[in-house]
Amino acid sequence: MTEHRRRLASSDVGLLAAMKAVFLRDLRVAFRQRQDLVNPLLFFVMVVTLFPLGVSPEVSFLREAGAGILWVAALLSVLLSLDHLFRHDYDDGTLEQLVLQPQPLFLLVLAKTLAHWMLTGLPLVLLAPVLGVMVHQPGNSIAVLCLTLLIGTPALSLIGAIGAALTLGLRSAGVLLSLLIIPLYIPVLIFGTGTVAAAAEGAPVGGHLALMAAFLVLALTLAPFAAASALRISLSNS
């Protein structure tokens, strides 16, 4: 019985070490290719900055539509970065080695998705207060906006990992990825903007945040399995 427990403990340590290695490797690769790291953030800032110039700079309009502008810009920024989630590993053969590892592939995919969120989603959350002030959002709305982005952007990365895995190795993968993923992003977008709108009206937002947390838990539970299966399918067809 003691020997069995030691084997379980050693396997857990090996699994955590593998996930940590994948996570840290993705961070190092991203900082070497800084253009891929900076492009989604610049896109986020440019969309939010140019929208008032192209539509209306009136304070009342921006105060009403600001949360939607920020959420749509964040969604598109995450979508812009998804094509690189597995692409570099696919091109240099690292992805095939991950599939052959003894550790469960879905946990390695989860580590890669977490690294993607740390590099893309978390910076968007940190930029949101500054851009929220730019579109004349009140203080309580900015706080709720940041909270919804903190809950919603990991779900966007997890859902996007499925589409990135399915379109891996295909021509015009970016267009197909958008067609596959945007419909799945709509519930997160609706509840994200709805939560901020409720906060602006003084309504309770606990129910909205609970639903967003439920979406995140659902994505965290199912998306790594789906992405791992899609990776195996894509590699077998390549």
From TrEMBL:
Pfam families: CcmB. It comes from the Bacteria. The keyword Nucleotidyltransferase does not apply. Coiled coil: none annotated. It is a multi-pass membrane protein. GO terms for molecular function: heme transmembrane transporter activity. The chain crosses the membrane at residues 37-55, 67-86, 106-130, 142-168, 175-197, 209-231. Keywords: Cell inner membrane, Cell membrane, Cytochrome c-type biogenesis, Membrane, Transmembrane, Transmembrane helix, Transport. One of its GO terms (cellular component) is plasma membrane. It is found in: Cell inner membrane. One of its GO terms (biological process) is cytochrome complex assembly. Required for the export of heme to the periplasm for the biogenesis of c-type cytochromes. Belongs to the CcmB/CycW/HelB family. This is Heme exporter protein B. It comes from Marinobacter lutaoensis.
